[in-house]
Amino acid sequence: MESPDATPRLKAAILIVSDTASKDPASDKTANALAPILAAEGKWETPAIKIVPDNVFQIQQAVCDWTDGPNWYNLVLLSGGTGFAVRDNTPEAVSPLIHRHAPGLVHGMIAASLKVTPFAMMARPVAGVRDKSLIITLPGSPKGAMENLDAVVKLLPHACLQTAGGSSRVMHAGGVKKLEAEAGVSSTSEQRQHDHHHHHHHGHGHGCGHGHVVPKAHTSSADRPQSNDPSAGPNRRYRSSPYPMLSVEEALLQISEHTPEPTIIEAPVNLSVVGSVIAEDVYAAEAVPAYKASIVDGYAVIATDSPSGPSTKGIFPVASVTHANVGGGLVPLQPGNIARITTGAPLPPNANAVVMVEDTVLASSTPDGTEEATVEILTGDIRPGENVREPGSDIALGSKILSRGDVISPVGGEIGLLAASGIRTVKVFKKPRVGVLSTGDELVEHDDPRTLTGGQIRDSNRPSLLSCLQAWGFPTVDLGIARDTPAGEIEHALRDSLRGVGRASSSVDVIVTTGGVSMGELDLLKPTIERSLGGTIHFGRVSMKPGKPTTFATIPFKEATSTTEGAQQERQSKIIFSLPGNPASALVTLNLFVLPSLHKLSGLGESSQALASKPWMAPQLGLPRVAVVLTHHFPLDPKRTEYHRAVVTASRSDGRLYATSTGLSGTGQRSSRVGSLASANALVVLHPGRGVGIKGEIVEALMMGPVHGCDTRLIC
Ligand SMILES: Nc1nc2c(c(=O)[nH]1)N[C@H]1C(S)=C(S)[C@@H](COP(=O)(O)OP(=O)(O)OC[C@H]3O[C@@H](n4cnc5c(N)ncnc54)[C@H](O)[C@@H]3O)O[C@H]1N2
Ligand code: MOO
Ligand SMILES: [Mg+2]
């Protein structure tokens, strides 16, 4: 008989899912209960053990670390989080990772537990295959986990060998009988045939919502069901997109609905808050000016309103001098004296008006000839308060200086108010951090000095998208290039960016990818989002040109954030925009779809009382929309709304805005031509139709940059 040690052992890993054990590993008893059951079989290496809290993202990351990449494990057992409690979400974390479900194992485990307790009905186990690994969830209690593992442990070596790519014929020739004997079960050859039949003809039952699977009775490859599983091969890929085609307006509604609410941070008042939106009304901490200040350079006087009072006209001794930066206490001004003063300086006590130096002449100097002794004031019309700023007359102490919803603009007015009134920190909505990932095997860094070979192209999307995002004022993370092959690179790049590891030093709020969203067998973004990351695609096609395959999704992820009300909450998901790879498509869809979402996340959509009274100032999300006159005919697409790249200029003669195409030739607006955006400051919206948009017609345009001035005669 073969010694168990003569054959290579299988690799197993145990993931304990428990909030408690993740804080206190000594409290876990299950891992130590399961390991001996595997050891007793003599076919397993000592299992790897890890503990994570009941957190979907951490569970998925741990499982993927064991199933993906070169150091994969044959078997991944999870224990815990499979019940009905609110924090029990192990099945929800594991299901999306599974490529092929194994309901038989689930039945087997539940059947075994039911013999022990009716509470087995409250277990929600999941089992199945991811790549070459078998994943099984077990109950959290040591007893329940042991019972379940006992029920299936004899089958696992066989299942794992098949999963890893072992020949099923060899297995069936001898191995199955042996296993059946060991497991105390038997099957007929018909049953085994039946199993094979299922294996070939049923879809993966993946909860992705789009995986329409057509069961067929025959086995020819042309008849096999279509799937969004890239590993199923090109002969099984979709031949028409399963994603409904949305209008741009419908797509924008989805984005608005699924973009999370903005979060609030307390930021220091410095240049980093420029572009941020105020989250809480701000009240002046100090009055401006803080004292009675002179508006001019001249002489502080004691003026009176009474016609019978002393006139300011005449010759007066200059009793004191006050400069703007006065140090200690001020000497009170005595009646009959005047005090020299500079602009902005505090008036001495008793003084109530200032005479401009232009309205005076020097009457006499001090004996040493260096100073004024007396000065003659030439005007008698000085009234109390003249040339004086009262304390708080620019900004009253405690007055509201900025309202929730106000934007701290680069013009400087808002930051000036904050700085002047002694506000050192301010509550603003956090600007979202955006990660940009290029995908594709053909991509080469744009500055790679080597000559391109074969189908290589330079990655122009990352620099162009990053530049656009940074110009809009959002912090960005360059996530690099992820290859389509080997499988999993895109998934890992996305997971790392959410976790803030690898190229992303801290986690990103929004992911933007380009490439891989259309119909090719290496267009992996949609399956990666749905199958590997358990995400939900809210739209995967839009009736627009360019940008048809634009994809928008949410990916489950948990982290602690504070709400707009300041309470702590767990944010459930992050958003991802997967834009088409064609460079013009990527930039147009960034402007059209990503910007409104970033605006919402930045708090631009937050209502403000101040703005309610000034509706014309209410900030709109996304690019500003204006009406423009076409300076020439624009061709129309028969089906899709076109976003034609154009230069919009403001006429100096009639004040209207005029739009001229950046390229009208047959290929001028082709989605591969990034040059169609060079010099463009607008996207002219052309609704589908026959023929052309006529010269002189007024249409809508979205402004991407400032309007240039022009002489209408030169463009029309
Ligand atoms: N059978 C169909 N084919 C295509 C359809 C369709 O509906 N049915 N849609 C077309 C449309 S429209 C577009 S847009 C593109 C979208 O393509 P993908 O998003 O899948 O992108 P890729 O296939 O990866 O690349 C397309 C194109 O863009 C170049 N590219 C990709 N990344 C970059 C980058 N970072 N910098 C510069 N250029 C990049 C890539 O090399 C390709 O040439 O699909 C059509 N096909
Ligand atoms: O929709 Mo695609 O972006 O035209 O080429
Ligand atoms: Mg493609």
Automatic annotation (TrEMBL):
GO molecular function: ATP binding; metal ion binding; molybdopterin adenylyltransferase activity; molybdopterin molybdotransferase activity
Keywords: Magnesium, Metal-binding, Molybdenum, Molybdenum cofactor biosynthesis, Transferase
Pathway terms, separated by semicolons: Cofactor biosynthesis; molybdopterin biosynthesis
Cofactor(s) required for function per UniProt: Mg(2+)
The keyword Secreted is assigned to this record: no
A GO-annotated cellular component: cytosol
InterPro entries attached to this UniProt entry: MoaB/Mog-like_dom_sf, MoaB/Mog_dom, MoCF_biosynth_CS, MoeA-like, MoeA_C_domain_IV, MoeA_C_domain_IV_sf, MoeA_linker/N, MoeA_linker/N_sf
Compositionally biased spans, kind Basic residues: 194-215
Catalytic activity annotation: adenylyl-molybdopterin + molybdate = Mo-molybdopterin + AMP + H(+); molybdopterin + ATP + H(+) = adenylyl-molybdopterin + diphosphate
Sequence ranges of Polar residues compositional bias: 218-230
GO biological process: Mo-molybdopterin cofactor biosynthetic process
Pfam family, one: MoeA_N
Residue intervals of the MoaB/Mog domain: 13-159, 435-600
TM stretches of this protein: none
Region (Disordered): 180-241
Similarity field: In the C-terminal section; belongs to the MoeA family. In the N-terminal section; belongs to the MoaB/Mog family.
PANTHER family in the record: GEPHYRIN, MOLYBDOPTERIN BIOSYNTHESIS PROTEIN
Purpose: Catalyzes two steps in the biosynthesis of the molybdenum cofactor. In the first step, molybdopterin is adenylated. Subsequently, molybdate is inserted into adenylated molybdopterin and AMP is released.
Entry protein name: MoeA C-terminal domain IV
